Amino acid sequence: MAELEDRRYKISEVGAILDVPGHLLRQWESRIPQLKPKRDRANRRYYTRKDIEIARRIKHLIRHEKVTIEGVRLQLAQELHGEGRPKTRREVVDLVEKIQTEVRAMIDMLDSE
Fold this sequence. Notes:
Blueprint: H1 11-18, H2 22-31, E1 38-39, E2 45-46, H3 49-63, H4 69-81, H5 89-111
Antiparallel strand pairs: 1-2
């Protein structure tokens, strides 16, 4: 696939690049918060290279992996924002300590039965 230039793309151009109709891109935009192309002064949407990559990922998840729209939202949230994943070493240590505490509490509950 050809490398995308660093420029603004119209919805019709993105549709041609991804081989999807413009109305489908608008539908994804309204249902998937991670796809938010910017708008110019005339209120026309324009896509950046990053927006196109997100749209490409959406298409792949829906068409090839058969993921629902809700599933796409969750998957992209994890991929793009790292939700649910520790970001620092301190967060990892805190998470491990929390898990250990919960496991010990479960073991104590089982022992007391």
